[in-house]
Specification:
By secondary structure, this protein is of the alpha+beta class. Helix content is about 20%, strand content about 25%. It has a domain of about 190 residues. α2 crosses α3 and α3 crosses α4.
Length: about 280
């Protein structure tokens, strides 16, 4: 019998988003590392660096009642990190922004080349690179931040603790003080030869263990589907569905730490995105 990983859109269950905390204490999900500053930051839980403009269109939150709404990106903040630990994560946001903007440019070039009638000898293969470790840490940080914001009634599967008290080894890995050890880490949910869409935006959904508690998150960006797995249980033993494609036992396999993403125009490889691990 298959064991199903449960997914759902993130929903807004927290009562103080944004606004004043219930008390004056600094709230910081990285407090397990110690040495917090006494200044409360207002964390952009949707990663401010990813968005070029001032506005962002959001959907999927309960308080939107099924509607889509455009808001100022600077309004989507929450008090979940102290100022020191928030600032230490800036390189992760910068790497994610560079990676997503590179993917956007790659898809734009692929689309334009697909319209031409030039033979492949006129095209050179363009290579782009990204730091896999930094991007993996950003994905975990992104998932953790959203969980802290909307997961008031949820717990971490591994420890049974509340969102603002994540497992210590996870926090250490996000801050580069340790590493995500397989099976934990970043996966690509894709099959060979599939087409990608060019829809802007990032969608995110939590992944819940069949026995309860958060174990990761599923992301999608312009057709790329990624899974950040935050558990020491073998992900390949679970059944997971992504955009209608099933991954798991006797099905398609997720790709751990994807290295070489190839992009084709008219069935000709013209660009590569290489993740360095």
């Amino acid at each position: 019998m298959d064991v199903q990983i449960c997914t759902s859109l993130f929903s807004s269950r927290v009562v103080n988003l944004p606004g004043k905390d219930r008390d004056s204490m600094v709230r910081c999900w990285a407090s397990v590392l110690g040495d917090c500053s006494d200044v409360q930051s207002r964390e952009h839980y949707l990663s401010r660096a990813l968005w070029l403009g001032e506005g962002i269109t959001i959907k999927g939150f309960d308080w939107l009642h099924g509607e889509t709404k455009t808001v100022g990106i600077d309004s989507l903040v929450a008090k979940i990190l102290c100022e020191k630990h928030n600032n230490l994560l800036s390189p992760l946001d910068a790497e994610a922004a560079d990676t997503f903007h590179t993917i956007t440019k790659i898809l734009e070039v692929a689309q334009e080349r697909g319209k031409t009638k030039l033979s492949k000898r006129y095209w050179r293969v363009e290579e782009h690179s990204a730091d896999g470790r930094l991007f993996e840490r950003w994905a975990a940080k992104y998932a953790l931040g959203l969980f802290c914001v909307v997961g008031k009634d949820w717990l971490w599967h591994q420890t049974g603790s509340e969102p603002l008290n994540p497992p210590k080894e996870m926090v250490r890995a996000i801050y580069g003080l340790g590493a995500f050890e397989k099976p934990a880490g970043l996966y690509l949910a894709a099959t060979s030869g599939e087409s990608l869409n060019h829809v802007d935006g990032i969608s995110a959904a939590p992944l819940f263990h069949p026995d309860g508690g958060l174990v990761g998150a599923h992301f999608e960006f312009k057709g790329f589907r990624l899974v950040i797995w935050l558990s020491n249980e073998n992900l390949d033993s679970f059944l997971l569905e992504s955009a209608g494609t099933e991954f798991g036992p006797k099905r398609n396999q997720l790709m751990y730490h994807p290295r070489n993403w190839q992009f084709a125009s008219r069935n000709i490889i013209t660009q590569r995105l290489i993740f360095e691990w």
